[in-house]
């Protein structure tokens, strides 16, 4: 072993899963590592919609402080949570191979088969007025805007919390369904059987990717992180984040982006909606 690397993470099950994944990769590379749990502001206030909080890096800034203060050596994030401008003194160390970047709709009705949801979505897409308006929950202004663009008569409810909390809230609600990131549910084996991928909905920039940040002056951490970097994912997520930054976007702006490599070519799709 070449020394203990201190990994900082949020306390949610998904965040811990991601940190453990990085820890395992570092162990395979010959480095011992220990995980430190840090609560973010975004995990404390679970009522205010993210787009109303007016804070960039709501899930990352407490980890940034721990990193700058030397309490941890690296921090692990869902890359979509990173602000387009990292805090001074912090750099991107690695981007891991991307998981599922899609959003999914989870219906509240217990035991409803995936085909039933697919048919429901198809009928609404073909004739939105033929099916009664639905109530869909999400805290994402991006998901809200794209959903209302497709289904303008629906009602959107705010849904905050980690994935476990949001699934529980959905189960106890009178909503028709809620929108989640597929990767988050799949990584901790919580994706319900009655969910359907929303192929028409473009994801948040860098959705489905896990990243590691470190201090820019910590050459050892930067070298260790670089071994875990997946170049195709790093290229695509940088393009998506650059698109978001060029439009001065953040969690309060309904901006989506997806870059995909096919051989030597990169294909990009992006969109921006009004808030409603």
What's the arrangement of secondary structure elements?
Blueprint: E1 4-9, H1 13-28, E2 32-37, H2 41-44, H3 50-53, H4 61-68, E3 74-78, E4 90-95, E5 103-107, H5 114-126, E6 135-137, H6 141-150, E7 155-157, H7 163-172, E8 177-181, H8 182-187, E9 195-197, E10 210-215, H9 219-226, H10 231-246, E11 255-262, E12 265-272
Parallel strand pairs: 1-2, 1-3, 6-7, 6-8
Antiparallel strand pairs: 3-10, 4-10, 5-8, 5-9, 11-12
General shape: globular
Oligomer: single chain
Structural class: alpha/beta
Number of strands: 12
* Computed CA radius of gyration, to the nearest angstrom: 19 Å
Mean pLDDT score, rounded? 88
Number of separate helices: 10
* Spatial ordering of strands, largest sheet: 2-1-3-10-4
Q: How helix-rich are the residues, as a percent range?
A: 25-40%
Low-confidence stretches: 42-46, 48-55
Please describe the biggest sheet, giving its number of strands, its sense, and whether it closes into a barrel: 5 strands, mixed
Residue fraction in strands: 15-25%
Whole-Å distance between the termini?
53 Å
SSE sequence, one letter per element: EHEHHHEEEHEHEHEHEEHHEE
């Amino acid at each position: 072993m070449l020394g203990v690397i201190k990994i900082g993470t949020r306390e949610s099950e998904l965040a811990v899963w991601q940190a453990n994944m990085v820890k395992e990769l570092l162990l395979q590379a010959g480095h011992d590592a220990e995980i430190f749990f840090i609560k973010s502001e975004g995990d404390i206030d679970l009522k205010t919609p993210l787009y109303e909080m007016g804070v960039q890096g709501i899930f990352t800034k407490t980890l940034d402080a721990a990193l700058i203060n030397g309490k941890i050596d690296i921090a692990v994030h869902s890359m979509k949570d990173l602000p387009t401008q990292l805090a001074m003194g912090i750099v991107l160390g690695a981007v891991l191979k991307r998981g599922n970047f899609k959003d999914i709709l989870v219906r509240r009705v217990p035991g409803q088969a995936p085909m039933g949801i697919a048919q429901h979505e198809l009928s609404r897409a073909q004739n939105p007025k033929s099916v009664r308006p639905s109530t869909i929950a999400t805290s994402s202004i991006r998901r809200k805007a794209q959903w209302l663009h497709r289904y303008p008569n629906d009602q959107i409810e705010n849904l905050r919390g980690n994935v476990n909390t949001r699934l529980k809230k959905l189960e106890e609600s009178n909503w028709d369904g809620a929108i989640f990131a597929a990767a988050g549910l799949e990584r901790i084996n919580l994706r319900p059987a009655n969910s359907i991928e929303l192929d028409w909905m473009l994801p948040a920039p860098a959705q489905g990717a896990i990243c590691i940040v470190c201090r820019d002056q910590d050459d050892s951490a930067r070298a260790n992180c670089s071994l875990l970097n997946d170049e195709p994912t790093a290229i695509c997520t940088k393009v998506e984040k650059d698109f978001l930054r060029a439009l001065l976007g953040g969690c309060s702006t309904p901006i989506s982006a997806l870059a995909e490599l096919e051989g030597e070519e990169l294909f990009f799709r992006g969109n921006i909606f009004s808030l409603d």
